[in-house]
Amino acid sequence: MATFKKGILGGFSGKVGTVVGARWRGKNIMRSLPQRGDYTPTELQLQQREKFRTVIRFLTPIQNIVGRFFGSEQGDKSPFNLATGYHLTEAVTPDGDGYVMDYLKVLISRGDLRGLNDESITADANQELSLSWTDNSGQGNAGATDQLVVVVYSPVSKLYQQFIPAGVRSDASASLSLPAYYSGLEVQVWATFITADENLAATSSYLGAVTVS
């Protein structure tokens, strides 16, 4: 520990580089940062780290969607930060010694645009998925040219397919072609709408699980 009367900017408090400044018994003091010794995380900390890893592994491949359409920045929190926080608290669940995503609660977007209405999905031949919904253009802020965004995810293979756009709201249906290697795989599907200028998004809908033919 060292004392000083006049630093470059006078006395200071807090960490600067590798030293810490403080006021002690009327004197300005500096001391080096303590060396970190052996540290064993608690069970709760280990669990939290595993939850975080689970969420980040799931969201990172679709960061181009959740990082743009998961609300607006809040202070220093980006849309991707907001998406991470939401999924950590709402959409991850224990599974044996680890964690898995709760697909029903997963959101790929969040916003005030009107979302899908009466949506459904079915598997057709040759790795095709058929998505349908009710055209609600003109209801509230729903526009006919709002773009449909779809994410298809295979939990077994950890593969994603993204469709941006897959159609527009007024279409009321869309056909999604998947690669041949999806044949026989069960996939999870989410869909949402974004405005044509991509400035506003809906809160996404979970369409459920379907086995690709």
In short:
With 213 residues, the chain is α+β, with helices and mostly antiparallel strands.
How is this fold's topology laid out?
Blueprint: E1 2-4, E2 14-16, E3 19-24, E4 27-32, H1 43-59, H2 63-69, H3 79-90, E5 92-95, E6 98-101, E7 120-124, E8 128-132, E9 147-154, E10 159-168, E11 173-177, E12 186-194, E13 205-211
Helix pairs in contact: 1-3, 2-3
Total of DSSP H or I helical runs spanning 4+ residues: 3
Number of strands: 13
CATH architecture of the largest domain: Sandwich
Q: Classify the helix fraction into a percent range.
A: 10-25%
CATH topology of the largest domain: Immunoglobulin-like
Radius of gyration: 25 Å
Query: Based on helices, strands and strand pairing, what is the structural class?
Result: alpha+beta
Describe this structure in words.
There is one protein chain. With 213 residues, the chain is an alpha+beta fold. It folds into two domains: 2-32, no CATH class; 43-211, Sandwich (Immunoglobulin-like). The protein contains three helices and 13 strands. The strands form four sheets. A four-stranded antiparallel sheet has the order 1-4-3-2, with no helix packed on it. Strands 10-9-12-13 form a four-stranded antiparallel sheet, with no helix packed on it. The longest helix has 17 residues, at 43-59. It is elongated. The model has no long low-confidence stretch (mean pLDDT 90).
